[in-house]
Amino acid sequence: MTPKPLTGRVPPEAIRRADLPRLAPEWLARYAALQDLSGAVSDAMDALGLRGAIPASVLAPTLGPRRMVGQAVTVRNVERADDPGAAAAGGRGLMGEHEAYNQAGPGDVVVIEGLAGVSNMGGQSAAVAHRAGCAGAVIDGSFRDPDSSRERDFPIWSRGVTPITGKWRLQTVEINGRVRIAGVAVDAGDLVVADEAGVVFVPFAQAGPVLEQAEKIDAGDKRQKADIAAGISLAALAVAKYK
Questions:
Q1: Residue 79 domain flag
Q2: Which residues participate in the annotated binding site for Mg(2+)?
Q3: Which of 32, 36, 82, 101 could form a disulfide with 69 if both were Cys (CB 3.0 to 4.6 A apart)?
Q4: Which residues are annotated as a binding site for substrate?
Q5: What is this structure's pTM?
Q6: 211 lies in which domain range?
Q7: 3: how many CB neighbours lie within 10 A of its CB?
């Protein structure tokens, strides 16, 4: 595949990889079909001894009930060394999340390791991500101009909203490398599932086993809900094996 022309927002060496591994589209569709998306995947991760679930109390959704399934394109931001006033006077921004959108494929999820209290994604940035075909964003940090993402139905899970720009406060140091989101290591290409309960990151190499386990859990949940609706006695429910 011909490499995409770079945006120039970050040095070429900051882009750790451009050839992300790809999950089969049917796997993504099967994940999306799970009834209790984040819950089933979180339980499957537990069953396999994996860690990757982050509750909505830590990274909250901004658009109400939404579901998202896609692969991660990652951004790592750090605090700038210079004073924001001096940086603003110099007029040179060092944020480069646009290169992640440039590297993304349709349906990918922008995953940003950033800072809380300042914006790691502004309104225009969300508009560009949406135009590039990204499914949404997960930000370990803050963003601003929530109207922009709402207008485009572009969901964001984050630590909150802020009016403070990151343009003079943040520097993007890496695209499509490893990031840490609320203590969870995430590599570019890993699977991201999210809903109003929270976010779960599934390592790329474990996406198949996790899917199989999650589908078993989901099927058990559906049987249990059917039994409850059918009026099965509490005694029978207590001894039934659903998972």
A1: yes
A2: 145
A3: 32
A4: 144
A5: 0.92
A6: 12-239
A7: 9
